[in-house]
Specification:
126 residues; 3 helices; single chain; 4 strands
C-alpha cells in the first residue's frame, strides 16, 4: 500500500501506462481507497492543507493530477462536466454527497444548458 502521495502517483502512473482505460482507472481507485485508509497519511495531508484545494501530485508524462480538497464546512457546487477527462474521487474524512446529472438541453452561446438530477450518493472515508 502506498503511504505517500509520491508513491501513490508513481503506482498510478505505472497502472495507467499499461491500461489507461476503465480497468486501469478502477485499479487506481482501489489504490486510492487503500491510501485513504492510512490514518497517518490522512492526518498529515489535512494538517498541511491551508487552501481549500491544492495540487498534491502532478504526472507530467500522462497529465493527471492528484488534488486535495479540504472544506471547513458544508459546501455545494453547481453541476459541472469533466468533458473528455475523468475523475476518481476519494473521501478522507467526513461525508460528501455526490450528485449525478443528465443533460436535458445543451448549452449554447449566451444560453446555459439545463440538467436533471439522476441520483445522489454518499462518499464516506476510504
Amino acid at each position: 500500500m502506498p503511504h505517500t502521495v509520491e508513491e501513490f502517483g508513481r503506482k498510478a502512473h505505472d497502472i495507467l501506462s499499461v491500461d489507461p482505460g476503465p480497468a486501469g482507472r478502477d485499479r487506481v481507485r482501489i489504490l486510492l481507497e487503500e491510501l485513504l485508509q492510512d490514518g497517518a497519511f490522512v492526518a498529515e495531508q489535512l494538517a498541511n492543507q491551508e487552501a481549500p484545494r491544492r495540487v498534491l501530485y502532478e504526472d507530467g508524462e500522462l497529465g493527471f493530477l492528484v488534488l486535495g480538497h479540504v472544506f471547513p464546512g458544508a459546501r455545494r457546487t453547481k453541476p459541472h462536466d469533466h468533458g473528455a477527462s475523468w475523475a476518481i474521487y476519494g473521501q478522507a474524512t467526513g461525508t460528501t454527497f455526490m450528485d449525478e446529472w443528465e443533460i436535458v438541453e445543451r448549452a449554447t452561446t449566451g444560453r446555459p444548458g439545463k440538467v436533471r438530477k439522476l441520483k445522489t450518493y454518499e462518499l464516506t472515508p476510504g
